Amino acid sequence: MKRVFLIVLDSVGIGAMEDAGEYGDTGTNTLASAATSPYFHMPNMQQLGLFHIDGVRCGKRVGEHTASIARMKEASKGKDTIIGHWEIAGICSKRPLPTYPEGFPEEILAEFSKRTGRGVLCNKPYSGTEVIKDYGDEHMKTGKLIVYTSADSVFQIAAHEEVVPVETLYEYCEIAREILSGEHGVGRVIARPFVGKSGAYTRTARRHDYALEPTGTTMLDQLCKKGYSVIGVGKINDIFAGKGMTEYTYTTGNEDGIEKTLAYMDKKFEGLCFVNLVDFDMLYGHRNDIDGYAKALAYFDTKLPEILKKLQEDDILMITADHGCDPGYTISTDHSREYTPFIMYQNNISPHNFGTRETFADIAATILKYFDIQPAFAGTPMSWRE
Hints:
Shape: globular
Radius of gyration: 20 Å
Low-confidence stretches: none
Mean pLDDT: 96
Helix content: 25-40%
CATH topology of the largest domain: Alkaline Phosphatase, subunit A
Largest sheet: 8 strands, mixed
Strand content: 15-25%
Structural class: alpha/beta
Order of helices and strands: EHHEHHEHEEHEEEHEHEHEHHEEEH
């Protein structure tokens, strides 16, 4: 019974790519920044080979790493969650998704207001925690929706749960998703509910993402077509707009995501369990919280022995990331254009260093090869038996 557990450590980049300057990310290195914290401790990832990966200069190398490793280069134009995950699944996006550094066009907002019956506040790039601090009171008084974006291709809608019930906010997001198509087809429309009183507003865990449908065939589609299970843990289902999934579950954070992954390891299925652990990015990278980021990495590392112990004979564990979000890069709190790590472990298989790969899609090709499926996209498999 073949199973692959693919865990994406959201935003755990390992150093700026050669074209990072085009994205304003020269010198970024998420892992190296986290490693400056006294809370950084990853002995299990060290043993697997994290610090042996090309270009990784932080941490200490062990004599012999136990997993196969590679440095992944993003071939797509972008540095966001959608682009990164799509490429991991086989889609290379040669054209970047639209971004709105000056805010969204008036015709978009006019149509959105007409269909929701509510006005709009903000309409500019903003920190999610700061935007509810600065516009929350006016939202409470007027009922207008807080619409904002970031350096990523996102249309985010924040609303207090007492002013706009969460289910209604979700309906507004579905309206925005319909409007934002074609040239304005942003990667994600995101519901950002919040609660609390003036001066103490806080976002809740009932965020929901409405992504573009993938623009091509992914490994998820191919696995489903062959009758294999494809299980999404965390925001994976949202990222792929539900396409290519046989089962999914949402999570409240890294701890919950890890526990749900461990639970799936105890279940009988054949196929892929695709996991996103979002806290690195959402709670720490975007907030320049180096210690918080390091603690989150250390926590994941403490759970690795339990994950490895549950691997069955034909199981493969893969660990990677989708982009960077350097908590030490004070010029910006946005995602960063970085290489990502790739670690692949299977019991009783000799480790191999696959060097630097030209595309994240090699991960998808490797998974499909394991299931004896020919990829419908460009990507070169990394053989776990080399």
